[in-house]
Amino acid sequence: MKRILIIIVAVFVLILAGYFAFIYYVPYSKGYRSGELIRMSHKGVLMKTWEGELSQGVSGSQIFRFSVLDSDQKVIDSLNDLEGQYVKLTYVERYKTFSWWGDSRFFIKAVKKETSPFKYK
Questions:
Q1: Positions of E strands within the chain
Q2: pTM of the shown model
Q3: CA 42 to CA 81: how far, in whole Å?
């Protein structure tokens, strides 16, 4: 009986580890988004996460919401420095998110400053 219980627990742990590994390492999609970075915030009570918004339209009606993992400190610093400017974001979309990662399934991997196509000379 003890051996069966150990096997059941081991199988459960392997399934749980496989699930977390799949969510973390297998992206749903990868891509780029450009727009004006309108918000970056560090929010939460118990688990603080970095969240941001990118305006992709002239009127601000098309908002792209994203998260940044705490381990990507260089990206967080770049986003904080470029707030209010036109940027190009490289993102990875995951199948699911967890509360300690952020609110969005879109995670930013790189940021680059761009020139806005809406500014006239």
A1: 27-43, 49-55, 63-68, 86-94, 106-113
A2: 0.79
A3: 14
